[in-house]
Amino acid sequence: xxxxxxxxxxxxxxxxxxxxxxxxxxxxxxxxxxxxxxxxxxxxxxxxxxxxxxxxxxxxxxxxxxxxxxxxxxxxxxxxxxxxxxxxxxxxxxxxxxxxxxxxxxxxxxxxxxxxxxxxxxxxxxxxxxxxxxxxxxxxxxxxxxxxxxxxxxxxxxxxxxxxxxxxxxxxxxxxxxxxxxxxxxxxxxxxxxxxxxxxxxxxxxxxxxxxxxxxxxxxxxxxxxxxxxxxxxxxxxxxxxxxxxxxxxxxxxxxxxxxxxxxxxxxxxxxxxxxxxxxxxxxxx
Length: 286
Fold this sequence. Notes:
Elements: E1 3-11, H1 15-27, E2 32-36, E3 39-45, H2 51-59, E4 67-74, H3 77-87, E5 92-94, E6 98-102, H4 106-110, E7 118-122, H5 134-144, E8 152-156, H6 162-169, E9 174-179, H7 182-194, E10 200-203, E11 216-222, H8 225-237, E12 239-251, H9 255-264, E13 267-275, E14 278-285
Parallel strand pairs: 6-7, 8-9, 8-11, 9-10, 11-12
Antiparallel strand pairs: 1-3, 1-4, 2-3, 5-6, 12-14, 13-14
Helix pairs in contact: 1-2, 5-6, 8-9
C-alpha cells in the first residue's frame, strides 16, 4: 500500500500539543506517529487521507496561541522497506509469555533461555506490524490471556501477520487473515512460514469475507477508528453467538463512539487495555 508521510511543525511545541495533533490527525486517517526533535511525523495510507478534514481540525486547534503547519510527501516503498530491513527492531517481551523479535536475530534469540518460550520472529521489512507499537502489544497481550485451542481466528488487516501467528502459536486450529496490500499478504505468509504455523491470507478489504465460509470464534482488528466503524458490521456477520471481537488502533477517547457502534450491532464491552493514549477493547455478544 502507498503511504504519505506528514511532518507537523507545532509552534510553540509541547508534548500536550503533539498529543492533540496525533489525535486530530487520527481523525483524518493517520495511523502511526514518530516524535522527532524538529516535529511530529505521521503516516497515513494514501487512499485513507482526508486532507480537508485534517485542515479543518487543525484550524480549530483547541489550545490558544498554538499554530500547526504540515508538509506531505509520498513515502517511497523501496526506501521505506530498505530502511526497516537495515535498522530492524529490538526484541519486545509481552506479559513475560512471549517475545517478538527481528527474524534476522533468530540464532541469538533462540539460544537465550532467559526469554519466554514463545518466540515469534518477524521479518522487519516495514514499519507497521513488528510489535513495537502499543496497539500491537495490547492485542498480543489480550490474545495471550485467551484459551485459543481449537478456535477459528480471523485477523482483519493482518499486516505482517503477527496477530494471526500469535493465535496459531496459542493453539488456534484455523487462522485466516486479509489485507488490502499485496505486499502485506506475501509478508504475512512469509512470516507464518518462518514461525512454523499455517495461515490463509487473502488480498482485499472486508469484501473478502463474503468468500470465507463459516464463523470465527475470535475476530481481530488492529485498524484505525474510521475503518473500524465502517467495517464492524462485516466483522459481526462472521461471528457466532459465543465469539469475541478484539479491536485496537485507536485512542482511549475514541472508545465511546466505538462502543455506540458495537451496541447497534448487539455487542458489549468485556474488557479494555490502555497504553499511553492508545486503547484495546474486547467485545462479546450482549
